[in-house]
């Protein structure tokens, strides 16, 4: 009976749940191969629904682990902050707020807005995302040090690991994501192929 | 204790810090123009102005509002609001009326940000305000009418 219960629990786990390995667990034939492998590990975070939902390529945000369209329908708007009259902060505050009338919560953080179009990742390969992240013309003018700081310390990035009741956190922790980013940079910031 | 301004008057409220603003408005202050619809920021009936921007009061704990400026439908004024209110009356936009204070808040904000919105811009702005009487065509027409009265 216990075995069946455990099996049911495993089968019921969200499909996106996965572990994030530490840099010393990532190996490669040389620095370049290891660097690409480190970015591939970072991809577990970058391509997690908690991150992708607000990194759309076209249209507005998506929601949930299945990344369905945001309800109510929301467009990006000129400032990546929703439509005139229906900005993100109409509903989203500066912190996650549990619902009082049912389970779950509305996510929040200060700031709360979409990533710019140039940082849209949905449907893109990890190689394409890597190229975007390294390109100052598309990443908001960041060099590698600024990318490390963004991954390791940015509050909205960190929200991915504290998304509130009803949402699966990104794998690992922001600290571990920062350590992977540092190791990726230290090994040459090589992008995976494909 | 949380002190904030509601409809121009300073209020100090001794309620559970997690109490949503909507509960405070309706149950403590008897400002019942703001409605409870869904409780999960899906319908827009509880929309108020928070520091000049629309905000769903059902997901806004009072502890987050120290020093804030809240305006409910009872305290609204201004050029865009007056135009929206007049257009709403002229077209009999409200049917059961439950959602209408929230609709008016969003419409007012829209006209403050976009003085002459297109149909698409109206639909995008009003997408978070649900009307169970389905007065969406009247709402859209009333916003256009209000915009026209603001042109001069």
From TrEMBL, chain B:
Keyword vocabulary terms for this entry: 2Fe-2S, Iron, Iron-sulfur, Metal-binding, Oxidoreductase
The keyword Calcium is annotated on this UniProt entry: no
SUPFAM superfamilies membership: 2Fe-2S ferredoxin-like (SSF54292), CO dehydrogenase ISP C-domain like (SSF47741)
Top-level taxon of origin: Bacteria
UniProt GO molecular function: 2 iron, 2 sulfur cluster binding; metal ion binding; oxidoreductase activity
Ranges of residues in domain 2Fe-2S ferredoxin-type: 1-76
UniProt entry tagged with the keyword Transferase: no
Annotated protein name in UniProt: Isoquinoline 1-oxidoreductase
């Amino acid at each position: 009976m216990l075995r069946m219960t455990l099996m049911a629990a495993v089968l019921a786990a969200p499909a996106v749940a996965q572990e994030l390995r530490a840099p010393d667990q990532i190996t490669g034939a040389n620095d370049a191969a290891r660097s690409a492998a480190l970015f591939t590990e970072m991809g577990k975070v970058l391509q997690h629904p908690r991150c992708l939902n607000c990194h759309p390529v076209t249209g507005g945000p998506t929601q949930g682990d299945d990344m369905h369209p945001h309800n109510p329908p929301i467009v990006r708007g000129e400032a990546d902050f929703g439509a005139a009259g229906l900005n993100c902060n109409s509903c989203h505050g500066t912190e996650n707020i549990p619902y009082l009338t049912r389970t779950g919560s509305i996510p929040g953080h200060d700031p709360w807005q979409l990533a710019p179009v140039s940082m849209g990742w949905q449907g893109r390969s990890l190689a394409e995302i890597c190229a975007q992240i390294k390109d100052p013309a598309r990443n908001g003018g960041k060099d590698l040090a600024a990318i490390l700081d963004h991954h390791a310390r940015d509050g909205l990035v960190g929200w991915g690991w504290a998304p509130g009741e009803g949402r699966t956190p990104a794998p690992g922790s922001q600290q571990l994501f920062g350590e992977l980013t540092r190791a990726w940079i230290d090994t040459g910031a090589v992008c995976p192929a494909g | 204790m949380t002190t904030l301004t509601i409809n121009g008057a300073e209020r100090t409220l001794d309620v559970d810090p997690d109490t949503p603003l909507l509960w405070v408005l309706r149950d403590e202050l008897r400002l019942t123009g703001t409605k409870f619809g869904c409780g999960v920021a899906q319908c827009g009936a509880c929309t108020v102005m928070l520091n000049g921007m629309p905000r769903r009061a059902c997901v806004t704990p009072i502890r987050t509002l120290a020093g804030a400026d809240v305006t409910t439908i009872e305290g609204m004024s201004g050029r865009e609001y007056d135009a929206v209110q007049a257009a709403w009356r002229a077209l009999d936009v409200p049917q059961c009326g439950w959602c209408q204070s929230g609709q008016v808040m969003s419409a007012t904000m829209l006209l403050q940000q976009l003085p002459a919105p297109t149909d698409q811009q109206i639909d995008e702005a009003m997408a978070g305000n649900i009307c169970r009487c389905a007065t969406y065509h009247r709402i859209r027409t009333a916003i256009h009418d209000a915009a026209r009265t603001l042109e001069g």
